[in-house]
Automatic annotation (TrEMBL):
Acidic residues bias locations: 66-80
Any one annotated GO CC term: nucleus
GO molecular-function term, one example from the UniProt record: DNA-binding transcription factor activity, RNA polymerase II-specific
SMART domains linked: ZnF_C2H2
Protein name: C2H2-type domain-containing protein
Localization, UniProt: Nucleus
Domain spans labelled C2H2-type: 108-131, 145-172, 173-200, 201-228, 229-256, 257-284, 285-312, 313-340, 341-368, 369-396, 397-424, 425-452, 453-481, 482-509
Plastid in keyword set: no
Lineage: Eukaryota, Metazoa, Chordata, Craniata, Vertebrata
Biased composition annotated in UniProt, kind: Polar residues: 1-11, 49-60
InterPro entries named in the record: Znf_C2H2_sf (IPR036236), Znf_C2H2_type (IPR013087)
Pfam families documented for this protein: zf-C2H2
Amino acid sequence: MDLGLSVNSDGNEAFQLPTPKVEDIKVEQYDHMITCQDDEEKPLCKTESLGSNEASQTTVKFEVKLEDDEDEEYQDDDSPQGDHPPVTQQKIHEQNDELNLQLKGRLHNCTVCRKSFTALTELKKHQQTHTLGVDLSQSTGKRRHKCVHCGKAFSSSSHLKSHMLIHTGEKPHECTHCGKAFSQNSHLKSHMVIHTGEKPHKCVHCGKDFLHVASLKYHILTHTGDRPHKCVQCEKAFSQSSHLKTHMTIHTGEKPHTCTQCGKAFSQRSDLKSHMVIHNGEKPHTCVHCGKAFPYRISLKYHILTHTGDRPHKCVQCGKAFLLSSHLKTHMTIHTGEKPHTCTQCGKAFSRSSHLKTHMKIHTGEKPHICSQCGKAFSTMSSLKSHMLTHTGEKPHTCVQCGRAFSLHSNLKSHMAIHTGEKPHTCVQCGRAFSLLSHLKSHFLTHTGEKPHKCVDCERAFAHLSALKLHMRKQHTDEKPYKCIECGEAFSKISDLSFHITTHTQRLNCADLPT
């Protein structure tokens, strides 16, 4: 194809491209306006419609400057917004129109080779390959500006300059409302919408509003079902590249984000931010219903559901509803039997990552949570909280059927099976049914013969933890926690105490007999 290459008076190369056909004018005109909307100094840009004769004869002239654009504005990899001029109402409508055109299958066509693209940005990038004599280092992926700290490379010096703020910790952009500082101006702009509350980008499918056009783009993928980013190790697919990047840390085990106060490392920056509230104790989000404060807006959002009673996430298999989608996802493993989290030391698999973390403390012996009353140590905070009720005597969980009170909600749940008679957990080996999953697990050991609980003193093994505890009291500690209130005699087993109490009742009955 003859591109009509020439040199103008400024020493820059120029070439002419054939104008597209009349039927393509409408879409091309739209694309052209998006390209030119931010530049008021483009004398060659004309917005009026072309007639059929004009369209067949007119050519469009482009001027190509042979220089490297060092003033290119930096866009942080972690921020989908980039650093752009203040958003106007006209630009908002144009961005929404662009998204809607893509959704309806409208394509952006290259006027040189007729190649089609779904995204306007991809078309712009492609058109650079047709510009003769241009340094294509940026479009071909060459990155000449390298960070001396971490080795990351950038296509322009301005990108590198912005990146360096990560290492220096400098945050020159400060919010005039709350004083919070940011390293990038684009981050400050994104933050400002928190104060204005404006959400100008609306989804045409469900009407949901978003602060940023990038957020709307990601949301639209939930309607289209498109997940273009696939993990090469496990083939799990994601709608966003950032989600894939987050997922990859599961395989690599990398934890690059370290807390400066306690040294704990995290795979994600968001996890580190969540952890930092432990040290600073900040809780800026307060519930208007009960006054309870939360460190994060999302935590407050979930808490409010406890007041409204709304449980929007329902299981399609059993109908059980949940406050959070993550809770539903966890619940679904009961039906699927999936256990993706495996212990690297003993191979035991778990349906939840939290269960694996708790299990790992068996191998490490870590018990960081200590009771302030008696000094007993526990591996988890929940275990310590449950233990504390033995000191306070508090029993906040009451059965609505018989009025019996329990210190733990799990104990109440177990008790309720007596009233309902429900036994949803069935043994696959013998068909015996149980009201609780824990009872089924204990029963299953009778089939496998497994005895995972071993005595550290004599190495005797037991199928159940309760049996090990009883063994420890009888054989190694001589502990007798069960005491008779009549005579004060103590026993190591509650069954022995129960039998002993009958001797008192028998004596009383004998005393009542006539002599």
